[in-house]
């Protein structure tokens, strides 16, 4: 059986169990969880950067967004609060819509 040693989505262990395969999982401390979520975010970013189609890119962006929500919670804020911060920064500084370099 392969060893992955990485953070996985909540339903993955159930999916593995239902497929008849075994697994070992542990619940992480808050500190270790944050560290592993940051590693997973980097993994998903790398997958996004290597995506070859819009569909692949959007799937990876969805994974990144899920991790941003999880990490915002780890920093004491809800995903809604994170969105408020994003909107305020966009209001004051603008977004990236004008594609300026």
Describe the structure.
This protein is an all-alpha fold. The protein is 62% helix and 0% strand. The chain has helices at residues 12-18, 30-49, 54-74, 79-93. Helix 2 (30-49) runs antiparallel to helix 3. The longest helix is centred in the middle third of the chain and has 21 residues, at 54-74. The chain is globular, with a radius of gyration of 17 Å. The mean pLDDT is 95.
Task: Please give a handful of descriptors for the protein shown.
101 residues, mainly alpha
Secondary-structure blueprint:
Elements: H1 12-18, H2 30-49, H3 54-74, H4 79-93
Helix pairs in contact: 2-3
Low-confidence runs of at least 5 consecutive residues = none
Beta fraction:
under 5%
- Calculate Rg over CA atoms: 17 Å
Please identify the structural class as seen in this structure.
mainly alpha
Mean pLDDT: 95
How many strand segments?
Answer: 0
Percentage of helical residues? 55-70%
The shape is globular
- End-to-end distance, in Å? 47 Å
């Amino acid at each position: 059986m392969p060893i992955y040693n990485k953070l996985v989505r909540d339903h993955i262990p159930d999916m593995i169990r239902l497929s008849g395969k075994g697994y070992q999982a542990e619940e992480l401390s808050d500190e270790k969880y944050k560290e592993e979520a940051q590693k997973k975010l980097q993994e998903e970013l790398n997958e996004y950067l290597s995506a070859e189609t819009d569909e692949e890119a959007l799937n990876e962006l969805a994974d990144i967004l899920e991790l941003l929500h999880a990490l915002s919670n780890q920093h004491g804020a809800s995903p809604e609060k994170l969105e408020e911060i994003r909107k305020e920064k966009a209001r004051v500084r603008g977004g990236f819509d004008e594609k300026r370099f």
